[in-house]
Design goal:
371 residues, alpha+beta, 7-stranded antiparallel β-sheet, 3-stranded mixed β-sheet
């Protein structure tokens, strides 16, 4: 069981006043629908709050369950790490040992590690995995493998295909569906009862919204709820309460220090050291471990945060033209002992500005921990 202490007796009335004030100003003005903030320090709960609304009709609650989008990838990665730790596979194993892909061309060099690190050279696909079953989607990935458009010459963030291949490898190794493995390997040991790939509690589901004209909000979705809840999407699906995501990262931080139960320290440290550098169309280089982005805290929240931090974000890139709208950032920082999971209930064109502003307010609120 994850070691986040839920005793709030030593928590001040408002442990994040600057951040709460900023978020309240946005929700009061109709700029943002709502937000969720979880913070722990060396396993001690600092804050787990819900602010504003989760929909135009309902106030947000810490029990709200949201879709994780790309924030689901670390849960799949931990399942693979567990298999490596238990001697069921190796990070360097070719993916063709587990999934029916061609044994020719560049596929020969694609292994589990390169898929986790986004360094396989497999070009990103923007196909919607909710349009077909998981098995059907996996079966299409290896077809037409000699097309020039299938491969790129450098590490690049792979949104969908790599993570279906990885999840299919998990299923082959554990001989169970990926959703059952995530529940057994991740959710149950961490005590994250809301974390799932399928069938969230409908009454607690709080979908992401996009802000429109005159402070109106519409639900963001790439599939009807019937498909969202019943079709596995290990690339940008999955569901959880924000607090349960925080508990997952709190457990990983314990594992990193050698006192966790989910994975051994050596395995977590291997996953959270640099493995690849990605250039994602900007001047900033992004360093990746195995299923985790490195130095994720300073990227989103400023230089006051540790460069050894690891985590993942969730974003929507198809709502409007322009860069992806990041609305979720979850991370663990071994240097300070801080764990943070932040989720906004809505997105708009100012996502970058909002994260930078929240980062400054969190740096103020958590200065004693960051020092």
């Amino acid at each position: 069981m994850a070691s986040v202490d839920h005793d709030r007796s030593d928590i001040s009335l408002d442990p994040i006043p600057a951040t709460r004030g900023l978020l309240n100003s946005w929700t009061d003005s109709g700029e943002v629908l709502g937000a969720y903030v979880f913070v722990s320090h060396h396993g001690r709960l600092v804050a787990d709050v819900a602010i504003g609304r989760c929909s135009p009709e309902r106030s947000s609650r810490t029990s709200d369950v949201g879709r994780l989008y790309c924030g689901v990838k670390p849960f799949v990665a931990v399942c693979l790490a567990k298999a490596v730790q238990d001697g069921m596979m190796e990070f360097g194993a070719p993916v063709r040992e587990f999934v029916d892909v061609p044994d020719t061309g560049q596929w020969k060099s694609v292994d589990i590690l390169s898929l986790l690190a986004h360094s396989s050279g497999l070009r990103p696909s923007h196909d919607n995995p909710y349009l077909r079953s998981f098995d059907s989607y996996v079966a299409t990935i290896g077809r037409d493998d000699e097309r020039p458009a299938r491969w790129v010459g450098q590490p690049v963030y792979n949104t969908t295909d790599a993570w279906h291949l990885l999840a299919a490898s998990v299923e082959r190794v554990f001989r169970r569906p990926i959703d059952a493995v995530v529940e057994e390997v991740v959710a149950q040991p961490v005590g994250a009862d809301s974390l799932c790939l399928l069938h969230p509690v409908v009454e607690d589901y709080a979908p992401l919204h996009a802000r429109g004209p005159s402070a109106t909000f519409r639900e963001v979705s790439d599939a009807p709820r019937r498909e969202l809840f019943s079709r596995v999407n290990p690339a940008h699906g999955g569901f959880s309460r924000n607090g349960d995501v925080g508990r997952f990262y709190s457990e990983l931080l314990d594992c990193h220090a050698g006192r966790g139960v989910l994975l051994e320290a050596r395995v977590v440290r291997e996953m959270t050291r640099p493995h690849a550098i990605l250039n994602e169309g900007s001047r900033q280089q992004h360093v990746w471990g195995l299923g985790f982005e490195m130095a994720v805290a300073p990227r989103y929240f400023g230089v006051g945060w540790g460069r050894r931090s690891f985590g993942h974000s969730g974003a929507v890139g198809y709502v409007t033209q322009g860069p992806p709208r990041v609305f979720l950032v979850s991370l663990a920082d071994p240097e300070s002992g801080l764990v943070l999971s932040l989720r906004l209930a809505s997105i708009d064109a100012r996502s970058g500005f909002r994260l930078a502003s929240i980062g400054r307010s969190l740096t103020t609120d958590l200065a004693d921990y960051l020092a």
